[in-house]
Amino acid sequence: MTELQKCYFGFIFVIFNIMKTEQQLKFFPTVFTIPLLFVFAIWFVYWLEIKFGWNFNKFGVYPRNISGLKGVFCSPFIHSDTNHLFNNSVPLFVLSTCLFYFYKEVAAKILIYGGIITGLLTWLIARESYHIGASGIVYLLFSFVLFSGVIRKNYRLVAVSFITIFLYGSMVWYVLPIKEGMSWEGHLSGLITGVVFALLYRKRGIVKEKFKFSQTEFDSMFDEDGNYIPPVVDEEIELKEISYRYIYKEKEQE
């Protein structure tokens, strides 16, 4: 794990502690269990390939071919080598953890529906080759976490977005064909899908709280146009005059 990735974990745990006061943000076991299961699954599939000498590359996305559609569901679990697998595992775990903690109401939809749409978009626009790896999902999560925090204008979520930029901002370059043998089309598909879902679910979950004006006694002293309204003074109640009559007791005669 690189120093930047260690810093990322540190920043995330600090934000978790800060946000304990947020009622909408409560820790659930799924915050870690689902990301761990996802990472375990891709490592297990790679172990099967090594153990039995299998090659699952043909289960990847093959664009504009009916049989290549199976890669929409299978390709995220298939990797070419250990380096490819490790490079996807760390950001996949970190970003999916953020997704299930900060956006738990829509996390499952983002991961499932977003993953399918990313695969379909890759199938439509990519060059003719087998496209494998979970990098499309990583870019989906990166894009959603980054843009969703900014769109929602919640200062805590914006902080998470800035941390994401700080640690994984360089990923943006890999949506361009700058490296041979890399599925930049899958990266681009994930990035686009993440932006779309960030806009689509911008009003779900934690959003910027709108200021609610509460009227005070001082505000009632002005009308809608801001003119001062003198307070109404109740007329004094005139008390009836009470007269007293004193009768002095005469001294008793001796």
UniProtKB/TrEMBL annotation:
<dbReference type="InterPro" id="IPR022764">
    <property type="entry name" value="Peptidase_S54_rhomboid_dom"/>
</dbReference>
<feature type="transmembrane region" description="Helical">
    <location>
        <begin position="110"/>
        <end position="126"/>
    </location>
</feature>
<feature type="transmembrane region" description="Helical">
    <location>
        <begin position="27"/>
        <end position="48"/>
    </location>
</feature>
<keyword id="KW-1133">Transmembrane helix</keyword>
<feature type="transmembrane region" description="Helical">
    <location>
        <begin position="157"/>
        <end position="176"/>
    </location>
</feature>
<feature type="domain" description="Peptidase S54 rhomboid">
    <location>
        <begin position="72"/>
        <end position="203"/>
    </location>
</feature>
<protein>
    <submittedName>
        <fullName>Membrane associated rhomboid family serine protease</fullName>
    </submittedName>
</protein>
<keyword id="KW-0472">Membrane</keyword>
<keyword id="KW-0378">Hydrolase</keyword>
<keyword id="KW-0812">Transmembrane</keyword>
<dbReference type="GO" id="GO:0016020">
    <property type="term" value="C:membrane"/>
</dbReference>
<dbReference type="InterPro" id="IPR035952">
    <property type="entry name" value="Rhomboid-like_sf"/>
</dbReference>
<dbReference type="Pfam" id="PF01694">
    <property type="entry name" value="Rhomboid"/>
</dbReference>
<feature type="transmembrane region" description="Helical">
    <location>
        <begin position="182"/>
        <end position="201"/>
    </location>
</feature>
<feature type="transmembrane region" description="Helical">
    <location>
        <begin position="85"/>
        <end position="103"/>
    </location>
</feature>
<dbReference type="GO" id="GO:0006508">
    <property type="term" value="P:proteolysis"/>
</dbReference>
<keyword id="KW-0645">Protease</keyword>
<feature type="transmembrane region" description="Helical">
    <location>
        <begin position="132"/>
        <end position="150"/>
    </location>
</feature>
<dbReference type="GO" id="GO:0004252">
    <property type="term" value="F:serine-type endopeptidase activity"/>
</dbReference>
